[in-house]
Amino acid sequence: MPKVLIPFLFFTFLFFHAQIIGQSSIGGGLKNNLGEPFEGAHISLEPGNFTTISDKEGRFEIINLDPGEYVLVISYLGAKSHSVNVDLKERDVFLDIILKDDVLALQSVVVTGTFEPRNILTSGTAITSLGPIELSQIFPRGTADLLQALPGTYTDPSAGEVFTKTYSRGISASAEDDMGWYYISLQEDGLPVSLVQHSYYGPDIFHRIDLYTERVEALRGGSASITALNAPGGIYNFISKGPSDILYGEFRLQGGLQGDNNPLFRIDGTIGGPLEKNWFFNVGGHYRLDQGARNTDFTYSKGGQIRFNVLKKHQKGFVKFYGKLLDDFTNRYTGVAATHWNKPSAAFGQDFNNTALLMPAFSANVPDGRRLPQGATNHFDPSQGVHAQDKAFGLDIFQNLGEDWTVRFNLKYSHKNANWQTAISNAFVSLNDPLAYFITGAQFPIGEVVFKDAALGTELARLDNSGILTGEPFQYLGTRTLPYDAIMGTASWLKQNRSDEWMNQLTIRKSSEKHDLTFGLGAGLSNTSLFTQGSFGFVTYEPNPRMLRVTLENPGQPVIALSDSNGLSNYGGLFFDNARADVTQVAFFANDRWKLNDRLHLDIGWRYETIDHKGSKDRAAPFLRDGGYDGDPTTEYDNGILMPTGERDDFDFMYNYLSYSTALNYGVNDQTSFFTRFSSGNKAPELNYYFNNFSGVPINRKGEVQKIKQVELGSKYHSDRFSAMTTVFWSQLKNVGITDFQFDAEQGSVFYAPVQFNDSRTFGIEWESAYKPLSYLTFNFNATLQHAKATKWTVYESAGSLGTEDDTIQDYSGNTLAFNPNVMFNLGIDYSKDKWSGIFKWQFMGSREGNIANAFQLPPYSIFNAGCGFKFSQNLSVNLVVTNLFNSEGLANFFGPNSFGASANDATVDFIQSNPDASFVVVPVLPRGTLLSMNYKF
């Protein structure tokens, strides 16, 4: 070796040796109160923005650290946060740490409804967190079903995974069945799932829960007015897995039975960890095949999603790229017939637990009213339900600018499609009712009518309806009859919805000794369109409906087809909506958390929001030609197809408003705090205002901005064994636009009644608590007591026709607000010791008014859930969950009298007194489901 290299190698060795010596590590072992390893805890180290999670042995390690002083923070939802100062002088530091229980997660840091991360105890809001343990105990029936466990939150998941309804604290008046998330921002990682809503197009269509979700943060009212786009009622934020310095993964295989032993199969998975130095990844998702909770002749739900994120850390922040690919089919349940107004029971051979009353599967091609000259058609198959597709990609950047300044920018683009192919309505239509024949669009469908099974071709019944126009009953010809002498009043419901959306939030934060100031910009752009087409369907009225092929076979005359071979009639004549819109939302916000002294903080914030709705809606009229669309006079089912006239009604309206919220939070000590908050929020109209109203007339006025005022007074307390949060609230809504779905029997068309603007008020109290008398046993209880009043409320009665000469307006001011229970509570027991675990939960829903007339009450009901688990090892476990253990037949919703086009408000006191034996339509809760899960972690 040349002598000249010896000094070089010597100094090189000293240099690298010094580097090795200079690089140290901090590690440790985590245990819970029982002395068991604590897996999955989040460990962060500052300065330097280092993070990791504990492994299955409870161990963690952060390496390649320079000597110096650090702050190590350990957090886990359900455990008290642990902070320790570490003076790193030696090569390595190892810490043994025991994490104490935080049974209500009041010390957990939340990021929802606040402009900076803050623990729940000092947040000045009523917010609840659900962590991995709570998420693992659910039966996977959708987003709304999970949220039933939260205080102050009313959910109606009786329709299934989608078409659900969620609201809080009586802020509910516009949360109709087809727009059930009207006041709520459903979010993923801090940005809305969808910017716009309209009929049959809500955020729950594009949201699924699986192992990729780490926790849920639920904010009711309050600061949502200033922290969310156009969503003063609350924020429900589903937060994804974060970065980890170790490779981890979890897979879950599930199989079970629902209702009448209908199978469900599902697989979930997630995996994450480091890619290389300061690079991290997470990917997860699920696939499911579900025959549904009620009986149908098709697969009720199938498909899944994949979500991912890739994060690059640097010394002063991070850059994260994330995305979601959702592609699945699901459906929604409609109502079931009942009788006995005071004590509802299922009617017409139906069953509250198992009857779906949906069209069976078939394949049809219906002329597309938008493109009749081109011969275009729309495929329709009720087994498809709603085909939901969402392709979303985003970029999240956080940067520490120094001098206590930080900036964060979150940007997301998504392309969404929701293609509905299902049935709407399932009402009883007597064969004595002329509607049963004239709804076909035929000119004179009187005489000998033949009903055949559309799938088998066999004749089911033949009748003579010649006397129905003079009030005489129909007469069967022969011995064959239709069930209950009726057909189902139903229609094919084809909706094609599309949206392209950009949304972002820029937040700049400056912290100092006395102030924590945040200001920024939130914005969203949505280009959306919809097309709706409806055709009448001839269907038997029975628990397992069959499609009917119907003909008019008068002697000596040509056979007239009143339906096509699949049973569809009045092609495209019941509904036609073709519209498009551009929605621009921009919001400027600012908030200051002012430290008045060591225990008292003042939060004061405002938000100025501007929303622009610009779009158009086609006018439509029936296609008129001798012989109908196909030119054949013997086919009467294609004589009234609605098509564009060429005229469009444009709209271009802007809404501007200022919202504000202020709160005081007083920390008595490290265990107890009190807060009070006043919020003044606004809710701009959603697109249904233009799409559902102004039928064939100019859109000459913009909608009203709803005014929402809320007052809260709350307390929070936690100790090692007991924690509780109590909130007294008062909510007021003004300028609530209400319209009802109506049917004109003479014209055979569907329309919405003129909008009415109403007010409501709700006051109540929320209670959330957890008690852990033993290290392995926890009792949970949350409850809501409230009273919701319609302070000003009118309903437009159209008397069953488009004509206005006999219309009236009914005044129900002072009545109880519909669908808001006075009492809701959840009581649960959790057991976990050694290798065994178990849960038992009781959900109680109090009685609710079924309509604003307060003429019908939905009775109270209870649902019990139970489960148990066994852990074979740290890696492998098995769990059994049973939902609705005792198969409760509780009623979640009410659709009014059992007639085509009826609404809940048609069931007035006078109607019920005059029709004590009439049937009506209710929506029961979902029946029992049993699910066995096998989990593997590494």
UniProtKB/TrEMBL annotation:
Keyword list (alphabetical) reads: Cell outer membrane, Ion transport, Iron, Iron transport, Membrane, Receptor, Signal, TonB box, Transmembrane, Transmembrane beta strand, Transport
The keyword Signal appears for this protein: yes
Question: Which top-rank group of organisms is this from?
Answer: Bacteria
Q: How does it sit in the membrane?
A: Multi-pass membrane protein
Q: Where is the TonB-dependent receptor plug domain?
A: 126-235
Family per UniProt? Belongs to the TonB-dependent receptor family.
Q: What is this protein called?
A: TonB-dependent receptor
Q: Where in the cell is it found?
A: Cell outer membrane
The chain positions of domain TonB-dependent receptor-like beta-barrel read 353-885
Identify the InterPro entries for this entry.
Beta-barrel_TonB, Beta-barrel_TonB_sf, CarboxyPept-like_regulatory, Plug_dom, Plug_dom_sf, TonB-dep_rcpt-like
Lineage, please?
Answer: Bacteria, Pseudomonadati, Bacteroidota, Flavobacteriia, Flavobacteriales
> One matching Pfam family, short form?
Plug
Annotated coiled-coil positions are none
